Amino acid sequence: MTTLTDVTDSATAKGEQTRELILSTALRLFREQGYGKTTMRAIAAEAGVSVGNAYYYYSSKEHLMQAYYDHLQMQHREAAVGILAEEKSFTKRLSGVLESWLEVSEPYHEFAGTFFKTAAEPKSPLSPFSEQSKPAREASVAVFRDVVEGSDLKLPADLKAELPELLWLMQMGFVLFWVHDDSKDLKRTRALIVRSVPLVDRLLRLTRIPGVRGVVNDLVALIRSIRP
Amino acid sequence: MTTLTDVTDSATAKGEQTRELILSTALRLFREQGYGKTTMRAIAAEAGVSVGNAYYYYSSKEHLMQAYYDHLQMQHREAAVGILAEEKSFTKRLSGVLESWLEVSEPYHEFAGTFFKTAAEPKSPLSPFSEQSKPAREASVAVFRDVVEGSDLKLPADLKAELPELLWLMQMGFVLFWVHDDSKDLKRTRALIVRSVPLVDRLLRLTRIPGVRGVVNDLVALIRSIRP
DNA sequence: CTGGTCTCTTGAACACGTTCAAAAGCCGGA
DNA sequence: TCCGGCTTTTGAACGTGTTCAAGAGACCAG
Fold first, then answer.
1. Band of the pLDDT at B14, cuts 50, 70, 90?
2. Alpha helix (H) ranges present in chain A?
3. Nearest-Cα residue of chain A relative to residue B114
4. Which of A23, A55, B1, B86 sits most deeply, having the most CB atoms within 10 A of its CB?
5. How far is the CA of A39 from the C1' of C15 (A)?
6. Which nucleotides of strand D are protein-proximal, with an atom < 7 A from a CB?
7. pLDDT of residue B3
8. Shortest-distance nucleotide from A53 CA to C1'
9. Rounded Cα–Cα distance for residues A177 and A191 (Å)
10. Residues 6+ apart with CB under 8 A from B98
11. CB within 8 Å: A118 and B117
12. What is the per-residue pLDDT across B107-118, written as a single tens digit (0 to 9) for each?
């Protein structure tokens, strides 16, 4: 039965099945017992393969997390486009994207701490600033570009060009906050997002004031200059 | 000889000597070979004690790093007070403190990545936001309070009260940047600091403009509200 | 001097992530 | 059918951080 379902995939299907079995087993165990308490031996046993075989497909425990991370980001992007199709107001677009991220990520909040830990290391491929995560990063920035471009926001061109990346950076800050947030139902992170969005909006409107404009220009120039 | 040097300490001196021998050995090896490649067995062997004995004094490898971190922070604070005694201008005080931090930390830049990694985990005692590092954090904020209070800066009282903590947060951002900075001689981090300080200064002066003031008030209120 | 109770010290043992040489399947061509 | 070269699979073995039961010293009371 299954061998006939998809002719195009069947060439690689054999190994791929095991690959995905291992991944899904790993993610389930991560969710159930946390990352630290889930051993590679347990993943292998639960998936019905040998330890070495798990390493044949995923060269480290971290790579299993990487795979999860990609999966999550894709989910978020899908949720985001749904929202962006409906809203025109900048604030609503922005908060929609941020809140949908929170929603998608919520089931993994506890586990995210460990993920964050390995992502923090500069050399780690999971670092949001690393070369390896460049595609994922640019995809995220693209979402924020969409937030800006598709909105009613009026801004000078150079600031508008820089804004998506700044918003992405802001979101990184929110992620940092979220990871450390142990309040009930993530109340504090929710409050942060709800209150930050209108503030950003007001802040951006302020750039029309001449005195403010100069400082903002310098800020943009600074950010440009320190990029690698 | 040594047994007579310090009567007050001699009660605890016996264990303390071993404790410090282990710490200094560990830090040396961390510097020489990096954190990851330094094994507890190597530390113990080099210090001439057993592995279990090292664990008697430091309950984990992380704790050895914690100790290093405290040491470094103290060094920085000492360097900072020296600068703050001489300068009155806000910008010079601020950049003096930031640059002295850079100077003190520079020898440990590579090793800092690993440190940062474990510090990023929310539950880790090394996290800058954790309960355990509260004393160290408050001591750091106090330095920035000194930067503000002892300067010629004129600001509304409520913003001035919040400013030290904001500056501390900014420094956390700089640390994050620094850890990821692999440019020659840390050029990019230096540029960031040099260019950020006058910008902060100008930003603070902007708060006199009525329209800006309102937004800043809201920002301060937001920060207050999301604190745990 | 003896016994008891601390603090300090030891190294074998454990659990885990990871590696690797060898075996097992698989497949296309002689 | 058998061979040769691949992909896949195996599990024992290694190195590491960490634990722990047992011992060694120090010190004091009797």
1. low
2. 10-33, 40-47, 51-57, 61-84, 90-105, 109-120, 134-149, 157-180, 187-206, 210-226
3. A121
4. A23
5. 10
6. 7-13, 15-21
7. 32
8. D9
9. 11
10. B171, B174, B193, B197
11. yes
12. 888 788 888 887
